[in-house]
Write a structure and sequence with these properties.
The structure is a single chain. Helix content is 38%, strand content 16%. With 293 residues, it is of the alpha/beta class. The protein has a single domain (2-39, 73-100, 120-290), classed as 7-stranded beta/alpha barrel (Alpha-Beta Barrel). The strands form three sheets. Strands 1, 2, 5, 10, 11 and 12 form a six-stranded parallel β-sheet that branches. A four-stranded mixed β-sheet has the order 6-7-9-8. The chain starts with a strand and ends with a helix. It binds zinc ion.
């Protein structure tokens, strides 16, 4: 089995102090796939805090806070990430471009923040994605090849921009009932494979490819999750010798788990330790499973 930790949102506004504290104790056991919005728009921690706490805010104020912050302009953070990359303690992935969707005509999606769902879009992001991918690839000296969509939301239009940029995708798979979009996105053979696993009441545990683009699903670690259920999913992926991607947010590592007397970081450490009891677990990154050999 391959085991991957996906850390979404790392951007210009993070500090080395924060990240080194959050990553300490983890990156020695498992590298982290750092998923970066290269050109974050606005004050990330401010808007994130309001969204996480469901605090109402003025749409105009949000729209006006549209300064673009390039990751590489935070020299200290970039140098830290480069050091970790050389030590194989992280892999580099993309997480949108600006992590912002200002198509105000799109309706809010229940339990999600559509305003962050940049790739759930009516726009063609091929060019923006190309620029952000080239920028990150140059900054870190690797050909970035993997992408996680902000809010795990992506539609056909968003997917086409990824395809045009040779980027593979880690996200939730589309609902299989939505067969038309599934076949368009994944191809008929992969759709049949996904249905077969659905009938077995299992999640499809491998990477599949369509139009040279790789796809893999993920399991969420959030404060509200049942750790037992995460371990059960891990067991099922292990049984199939598949790929277990645990997605999380390091900015939430100090948050309390809702049903446990532990922080989310402690929950993550518990799950990594649980995985260590199995033989033949390879701790790797999204970049490594998707890179062209
Ligand atoms: Zn995000």
């Amino acid at each position: 089995m391959k085991f991957i930790i996906r850390d979404d949102d790392v951007n210009y506004h993070y500090t080395v102090d924060q990240l080194s504290r959050w990553y300490s104790g983890i990156i020695d056991m498992c590298p982290i796939s750092v998923c970066i919005p290269a050109f974050i728009k606005g004050d990330f921690f401010k808007w994130n805090r309001l969204a996480e706490n469901h605090i109402p805010y003025s749409a105009d104020e949000w729209l006006n806070d549209n300064t673009v912050y390039k990751l590489g302009d935070n020299y200290v953070l970039t140098a830290y990430l480069k050091r970790l990359l050389v030590q194989h303690k992280i892999g580099i992935s993309m997480h949108g471009v600006s992590h912002r969707n200002d198509e105000m005509e799109l309706e809010e999606v229940k339990h999600n923040y559509i305003r962050g769902a940049e790739f759930y879009t009516n726009r063609d992001y091929t060019r923006e994605l190309y620029e952000a991918k080239s920028y990150l690839s140059e900054l870190f000296g690797v050909e970035v090849c993997s992408f996680t969509p902000p809010q795990n939301m992506i539609n056909i239009k968003g997917l086409n921009a990824l395809k045009a940029n040779n980027l593979s995708l880690c996200t939730d798979f589309l609902s299989l009932r939505n067969w038309d979009d599934c076949i368009k996105s994944y191809g008929i053979i992969n759709y049949v494979k996904l249905c077969y696993y659905k009938l077995k009441k299992e999640q499809y545990p491998y990477v599949f490819h369509h139009h040279r683009m790789g796809f893999v699903r993920h399991c969420r670690l959030q404060p509200g999750r049942d750790i037992g259920a995460i371990k059960q999913e891990l067991n099922s992926v292990y049984k199939n010798n598949g790929i277990f991607v645990l997605s999380t947010h390091s900015y939430g590592f100090d948050f309390k788990m809702e049903s446990y007397n532990m922080t989310m970081k402690e929950a993550l450490l518990d799950i990594i330790k649980y995985s260590k009891q199995f033989d033949n677990v390879e701790y790797t990154t999204l970049h490594d499973i998707f890179k062209k050999k």
